[in-house]
Design brief:
The protein is α+β, with helices and mostly antiparallel strands. It is built from six helices and 15 strands. The chain has two domains: about 210 residues, Bira Bifunctional Protein, Domain 2 (BirA Bifunctional Protein, domain 2); about 45 residues. A hairpin with a 2-residue loop joins strand 8 and strand 9. The longest helix is centred in the middle third of the chain and has 21 residues.
Length: about 270
């Protein structure tokens, strides 16, 4: 077994795993601007294949949804990007892949944090009303003949960090929930196992099952929330998410919203 201290002495090292597909190889980076950028570069040049996992101890320019930055302290959290070959032709498959990864993260986190774990639309990991992690998937599409070539799934999950920068909403970590310290590298490897299980369902075409499970653990489902669209704040009830990834709500009208069309007022 490779000594963890030795891993810190090199910028790029393979960490041995016993996983079948996703998580092989498991590459540890001491510091990188963005694991998604790094993984995308390796996929484009052909030096990373399906299942390759890039885990970073430090990320200097992490990427979040809608151009936001993902902040994390060195060595305290899971910073992971996976190279995936979706091999799917379903029109709604990009969202369903996102739901698949979110469910895997939910499985993983719930094992430690319990029943208060949920997925907040579209793919944030929540514990009670606090954000525990986030997912950013970047897709590469070729010609109509080639189709969906790659998906780079970036995952950030708060593990040991207990102090966060102001203005980040209400983050929470596993250590804050359980009071325990964790080996983040070992947990990242374990997360790969969860993703492998869920990804097997995705590739088998179990889309209805994936969507049903996603909606079952959806944050604030069947509850009233405040959303903001443009300059208008309104109250509505979360009903679920459609196969396309649109958020379904109801109030005086039945509504549906694309990602980025509305924001949650509670996050402000």
């Amino acid at each position: 077994m490779t000594n963890f201290a030795q891993l810190k002495n090199s910028n790029l090292l393979s960490y041995p795993t016993t996983f079948n597909t996703i998580g092989q190889p498991f590459i540890l980076l001491t510091s990188v601007d963005s694991t998604n950028n790094y993984a995308m570069g390796r996929a484009r040049e052909g030096t990373a294949t399906h299942g390759t996992a890039f885990f970073a101890l430090e990320q200097t320019a992490g990427k979040g949804q809608r151009g936001r930055t993902w902040h994390t302290r060195k060595g305290e959290n899971i910073i992971l990007s996976l190279v995936l070959n979706p091999s799917a032709t379903q029109p709604d498959a990009p969202f369903l892949l996102s739901a698949t990864i979110a469910l895997a993260c939910y499985d993983f986190y719930k094992n430690f944090a319990g029943e208060d774990t949920h997925i907040k639309w579209p793919n944030d990991l929540y514990w009670r009303d606090r954000k525990a992690g986030g997912i950013l998937i970047e897709n590469v599409f070729g010609s109509s003949a080639v189709g969906w070539q790659w998906a780079i799934a970036g995952i950030g999950i708060n593990i040991n960090q207990t102090e966060f920068e102001s203005g980040l909403g209400k983050p929470v970590s596993l250590k804050q929930i359980t009071g325990k310290e964790y080996n983040v590298t070992a947990l990242a490897a374990s997360l790969c196992e969860n993703i492998e299980k869920r990804f097997t369902n995705f590739r088998s075409g179990a889309y209805a099952e994936i969507l049903a499970e996603y909606n079952n653990v959806l944050y604030k489902r069947n509850e009233k929330v405040l959303l903001k669209k443009d300059n208008a704040v309104f109250e509505t009830t979360i009903r679920g998410v459609a196969p396309s990834g649109k958020l379904l709500t109801s109030d005086t009208l039945d509504r549906e919203f694309d990602f980025g069309e509305v924001s949650w007022v509670m996050d402000r």
